[in-house]
Write the structure tokens for this entry.
Amino acid sequence: MFGKRTTTGTAPRIAVNPTASVPMKPADVKAPQAAPEPKAAAARAEQVQAERRHSEEYYDVKTTVFNALIDTIDLTQLAKLEPAAAREEIRDIVSEIIQLKSVVMSIAEQEELLEDICNDVLGYGPLEPLLARDDIADIMVNGAETTFIEVGGKVQKTSVRFADNLQLMNICQRIVSQVGRRVDESSPICDARLPDGSRVNVIAPPLAIDGPCLTIRKFKKDRLRLDNLVKFGSLSPAAKTILEIIGRVRCNVLISGGTGSGKTTLLNCMTGCVDHDERIITCEDSAELQLQQPHVVRLETRPPNLEGEGEITMRELVKNCLRMRPERIIVGEVRGPEAFDLLQAMNTGHDGSMGTLHSNSPREAISRLESMIMMGGYALPPKTIREMITGSIDVIVQASRLRDGSRKITHITEVIGMEGDVVTLQDIIVYEITGEDANGKLTGRHRSTGIARPRFWERAEYYGDTERLAQALSSAEVNDANGNPVRS
Ligand SMILES: Nc1ncnc2c1ncn2[C@@H]1O[C@H](COP(=O)(O)OP(=O)(O)OP(=O)(O)O)[C@@H](O)[C@H]1O
Ligand SMILES: [Mg+2]
């Protein structure tokens, strides 16, 4: 139907030289000597398949078939088809090419090739199988040859590779053009989003020396909730109740953590505690939050265009949302001078606002905030900035990815005031590592520091939640070997 050279319905869609055969050798894997067990045979077949994926011949054949296909089809016509019909059309033509070019391959190999080529033409090429998996947190492509993924908190290398950097660059371009952006030598850095909401960053040569780098934070199809975090061991049931109360009684919360430690996920979970009649405004660089409330306005920053114009910064968004009658303001990530505007909003009746920030401890989070405000050009003495911080932030929740790959909430900490020039913090719940099991997994526990009446007790009283809070705090207490509660 879309063969450029098709003249009638029955004419061949491509001109090929039937004598030019492209033999495809099976991979250099020796056949097993004895009849294998069914399970072992399946594993072996999988291994052969994986090794075949790597083989140079496979890529050679794929390139030959792919080029013949591109010569044959009219891509603009193909783009007008429904994805399923387009896939069918490509499959028909590729099967024909394989036959005409006398490519020697098994049915399974042919299926794999068909799938790969469909993904290249219609989707995100070699990334498709990775995008289809829901257990992957991050996909990190470092040039055409190397792709890493993060699964279960651990980074591992995959066998995925692209034909060359040009193919990778085309896929990057396809991704970013969906959100109306462009990536090339003149604008080599670009943030984008996949249609499913996954966050994407591309940095291309000449900035990326070894070829285009593509980083994807995969969007979880099933939104995580605080209950899931308890199931994963990231939180104890008592710590979960305390976080729920903190969210519900409108404390201003800062979620602090290193890169990929689970800040955005935790922020998302905590917004689950917000009442359904509140007006929430979210400000993000790349919209990742999935709030479930009915009254949510989502705002996203905008990078400058090619002429360097039209940029809308986080600061402008936060300032603007103050004019939108918000009841809560949620900032995806505080990283610059917007910190000042967020603190002011928190201070002036928008309590219950939340944000995340990159830092390794609650204490560091305070100094990061301070330096963000100073770098914003406000000529305020450090003590005034610290007073502003203590007047605005009620609770800092620290998320961390531990060395065994697990993600934990390691601190629920209150900001209680100032002593001289120093901001005073008070841990309520801490995660304590107690050891390591035989599989190298860290063991530990969330325990209370013995604070029976946190500073937000009054808020809890106002919302009628003190009983639940007292219960959660006392059940988080841990006794030492002598039966005395462990304090601080
Ligand atoms: N407690 C958890 N247990 C298991 N997986 C988690 C947990 N929290 C988050 N994740 C997963 O870890 C990945 C990173 O999470 P998230 O995007 O929340 O991190 P982040 O700290 O916001 O990262 P970044 O600094 O890049 O913005 C996601 O795939 C998420 O599903
Ligand atoms: Mg994040």
Q: What stands out?
A: Residues 66 and 117 are 7 Å apart (CA to CA). Residues 263-264, 333 surround magnesium ion (ligand 2) (CB under 6 Å).
